[in-house]
């Protein structure tokens, strides 16, 4: 008996030694992560924050009622299930059991109602108020939050997945000052303005977001979001190991992409879409064939691979890939493709050629990647007999200028470029319904289609959105160029694993580990 016990003890000891030797060969996992960003948040109240940099942080602290998968389909969030009335004017959201706020209080239907009420209150001065749609009433029925709308609003479910639609806990506004208390994967710990924000993992977190694999608490215990305004200093901090992740410039991202010691991430689900547009009220750009010819001259592959360092993709639709009802293959059948010879033929038919070039302005704003794209675009247009003079402005001044330009019906014709983003194709409404974004609205027929898609849901709404996109493409009012998140890049050391970027350039750390 004593001999058997001794042999068992020896085997156990050998096993422990072997296990210990194995553990020493595995990389140790770190429980904290430091991210360097160029600017600080302007606030941590998601119902008052207006910048993406702020909403990237609040999205880590607060959850949304619904979530969205990478194909644009809507899934449960704080609501385990939901339903819409036949007339599209009322919704019921059943709040998941067992959801707790970071202070231990229960998040239930009453808490959800309080959050919606505050988001809609004019006194809140919510910069995203209009995106909530025509909500006319809120109520609670047991576990369900009931919302009544004055009219159907097709984009509503998509909006409730977005970083602009975060739900706060009642204790956030229990005192005189806002406290960032939510139900999300990370808890607020501290904030030193213009220096750092510290977040700690929510040990009670239960994940239902389809973009996240980890079912529970984030693997990282602490997130430190540091402000390092200078790009050179951020890169030095990354290369030295002072920080684990940074916001790189486009050029820096290209360099890091070629280095196996680092990883580069683009916001593939940003909902960002880049378009070329026209002063279509001014001759000869009132002719759709000339607009098509200009679109055929644009070498989108070169813009993606050269101007944007291969960190973006070409796109075919007026709205970004991965959103509801977006069908890249279908859009390709409606729009123009790169075909300089066909473009020359169309220009010749309209009376333009090498001896009689069409002179236009190429009105643009100054941003990394865009500048190089516009230079290539200028050469593309020259190849089909279009002399484009580039006129560059800073972003804010550019859009102010375009408001006036797009009102004109005579003068020098112009081609211009822009970007738009969102979680639903409804941003077509914002762009094209008269008067439209910077006065680019089209006509009564398009207005009617844009209004109608808002009142539909499911397949009927998808069909109407396709009809709108087909009209825009076949008449060449817009030339889709590139997607996705050209302006939202992240880079990390190769020791970081599991990081992703979600819709609207949100940062997802639930699955992150660091060796």
From TrEMBL:
Cell compartment(s), UniProt: Periplasm
BP term (GO), one: peptide transport
This protein's GO CC annotations: ATP-binding cassette (ABC) transporter complex; outer membrane-bounded periplasmic space
Keywords of the record: Signal, Transport
Keyword Hydrolase: no
Domain Solute-binding protein family: 74-432
Molecular function GO terms recorded: peptide transmembrane transporter activity
Signal peptide interval: 1-30
Record's keyword annotation contains Isomerase: no
Family classification: Belongs to the bacterial solute-binding protein 5 family.
Protein name: ABC transporter substrate-binding protein
Species, as recorded: Ferranicluibacter rubi
Phylogenetic lineage: Bacteria, Pseudomonadati, Pseudomonadota, Alphaproteobacteria, Hyphomicrobiales
């Amino acid at each position: 008996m004593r001999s058997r016990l001794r042999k068992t003890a020896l085997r156990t000891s050998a096993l422990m030694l072997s296990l210990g030797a194995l553990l020493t060969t595995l990389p140790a996992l770190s429980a904290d992560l430091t991210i360097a960003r160029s600017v600080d948040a302007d606030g941590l109240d998601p119902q008052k924050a207006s910048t993406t940099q702020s909403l990237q942080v609040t999205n880590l602290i607060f959850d949304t009622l619904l979530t969205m998968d990478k194909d644009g389909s809507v899934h449960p969030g704080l609501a385990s299930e939901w339903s819409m009335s036949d007339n599209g004017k009322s919704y019921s959201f059943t709040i998941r059991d067992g959801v707790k706020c970071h202070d231990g209080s229960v998040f239930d239907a009453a808490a959800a109602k309080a959050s919606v009420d505050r988001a809609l209150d004019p006194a809140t001065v919510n910069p995203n108020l209009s995106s909530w749609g025509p909500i006319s009433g809120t109520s609670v029925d047991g576990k369900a939050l009931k919302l009544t709308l004055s009219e159907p609003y097709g984009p509503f479910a998509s909006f409730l997945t977005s970083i602009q639609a975060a739900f706060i806990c009642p204790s956030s506004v229990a005192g005189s000052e806002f406290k960032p208390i939510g139900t999300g994967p990370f808890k607020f710990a501290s904030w030193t303005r213009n220096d750092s924000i510290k977040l700690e993992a929510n040990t009670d977190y239960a994940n239902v977001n389809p973009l996240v694999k980890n079912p529970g608490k984030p693997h990282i215990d602490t997130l430190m979001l540091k402000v390092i305004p200078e790009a050179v200093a951020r890169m030095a901090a990354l290369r030295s190991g002072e920080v684990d992740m940074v916001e790189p410039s486009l050029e820096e991202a290209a360099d890091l992409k070629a280095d196996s010691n680092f990883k580069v991430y683009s916001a593939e689900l940003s909902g960002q879409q880049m378009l070329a547009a026209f002063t279509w009220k001014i001759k000869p750009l009132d002719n759709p064939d000339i607009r098509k010819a200009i679109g055929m001259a644009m070498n989108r592959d070169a813009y993606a691979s050269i101007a944007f360092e291969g960190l973006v993709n070409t796109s075919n639709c007026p709205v970004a890939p991965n959103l509801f009802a977006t069908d890249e293959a279908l859009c390709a059948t409606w729009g123009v493709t790169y075909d300089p010879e066909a473009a020359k033929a169309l220009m010749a038919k309209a009376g333009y050629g090498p001896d009689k070039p069409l002179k236009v302005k190429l009105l643009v704003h100054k941003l990394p990647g865009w500048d190089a794209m516009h230079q290539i675009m200028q050469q593309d247009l020259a190849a089909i007999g279009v002399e484009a003079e580039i006129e560059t402005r800073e972003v804010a001044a550019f859009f102010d200028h375009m408001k006036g330009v797009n009102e004109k019906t005579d003068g020098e014709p112009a081609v211009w470029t822009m970007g738009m983003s969102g979680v639903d194709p409804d941003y077509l409404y914002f762009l094209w319904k008269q008067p439209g974004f910077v006065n680019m609205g089209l006509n009564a027929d398009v207005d009617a289609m844009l209004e109608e898609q808002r009142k539909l849901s499911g397949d009927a709404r998808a069909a109407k959105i396709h009809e709108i996109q087909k009209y825009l493409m076949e008449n060449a009012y817009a030339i889709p160029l590139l997607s996705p998140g050209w302006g939202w890049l992240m880079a990390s050391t190769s020791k970081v694993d599991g990081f992703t970027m979600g819709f609207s350039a949100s940062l997802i750390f639930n699955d992150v580990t660091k060796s």
